[in-house]
Amino acid sequence: NPRTPQLRGGARAGARGAMSAFRTTRRAARAIALVYLLRLLVAWIVVSPIARALSSVVARNHPRGDAILFEAGGLELIESLRLSSTVLASEIKGALLIGTVLGALSLSPAAALFSALAEKEPTGPAQWIRRGVELFPRFLLTFGARLFCQGVLLGAGAIALTRLARHFGSSWPEPRADLAGVTLGLVVLLPVCALGVYEDLVRGEMVKNAPLAVALRRAVQIARSRALALAGPWLLIAACSIALPLLAAPLVGLLDVSQPGVSRLIGVTVVHQLVVLCLVVLRALWLAVVVDVGSAPSAERLAVDLEVAASGPVPAQIEAHDAAPEPRQ
C-alpha cells in the first residue's frame, strides 16, 4: 500500500509530538500547581457564601448538621432550598458578580501558565506572573470575542433546533426525531468548540510576542496545515476531561457523606480535588500541544515570519530552510 509509509510517518510524528507535550507539561509543574491553587481559592470565595446560606436553615438546627443534605432522595436538600430561597437568591447574585470579576482576573494566571509552557529556558514564578500581567489585556480581548461569537452561534443554533424539532416532531416518529435533534445539536457544538481551539492558537502566538493581526493570521494557517495534529489530542483530552468526573461520581456515592465519619468527608474532598487537579493538568497538556504545534515550521509560517522580520536580520530557523548555494564552476 503506497500510503503505509505516510501513515507510519504520521504515527511516529504523533508519538513524538505527544512525548514533547508531556515533557513540556512536566517542566511547567510549578505553574500548574500555581493555577490549581488559585482556582481552589476562587472556588472557595465564590461558593462559601452559597454553602452557608444553604445550610443555615435546616442543617444548622439538625443534630447531624449538613450531612442530612446528602441523604438519598434529596428531600432535606429540597427543603433547604425552599426555606432559604430568599437568602440564597441574594447570595447567588453576589457570587455571580464576584465570580465574573475573578473569572476575568483568572486570565492572568492562564497567561502565566501559557508563558511557562512556551518558554525555552526555565525561569520562575516571578517571570510567569509578570508575563501573565502583560498578556492579560490581550487575553481578555480574545476571551470576550470568543464568548460573543460562541453566544451568537449557540443562540442561532437554539432557534434553528427549536424550529426543526417542531417540524420533526410533527412529521417523523419520536425516536427518529430525537436522534435527528441530537445529531444537529452536535453539529452546532462543532464550530463552538472550534472557536475555543482557535482562541488557544491565537493566544499561543501572542505568548511569542506576535501582534494581534499576525497572531490571528498565523492561527488560521496553523489550523489549516496542522488540523489532524490538533484534532487527535483535543478529542483525547476532551474525552478524558469528561470521563474523569463521571468515573469519580460512583466513588463519591460509595463514600456517602450523609453517614457519620470524618474519614468519609476527607475522602470525598480528596477525590474532588484530585479530579480538579487532573483537569488542570489536562488543560496544561492541551496548551503544551498548542505550543508544540505552533512551533513546528511550515512554508506559510516562514513566509509570515519573513514579512514580520523584513526590516531585521533573517532568523536562523528561516536560513536553515534556504536552499544551499550552488558551487561555482
What does this structure look like?
The chain is mostly helical and 329 residues long. 81% of the residues lie in helices and 0% in strands. The longest helix is centred in the middle third of the chain and has 47 residues, at 125-171.
Short structural summary:
The chain is mainly α and 329 residues long. Helices cover 81% and strands 0% of the residues.
End-to-end Cα distance: 43 Å
Radius of gyration (Å): 25 Å
Shape: globular
Helix-strand pattern, N to C?
Answer: HHHHHHHHHHHH
The percent range for strand residues is under 5%
- Put simply, the count of helices is 12
Number of strands: 0
User: SS-based structural class?
Assistant: mainly alpha
Major sheet details:
none
Mean pLDDT, rounded to whole units? 79
Poorly predicted tracts of residues:
1-11, 299-311, 320-329
Helix content: over 70%
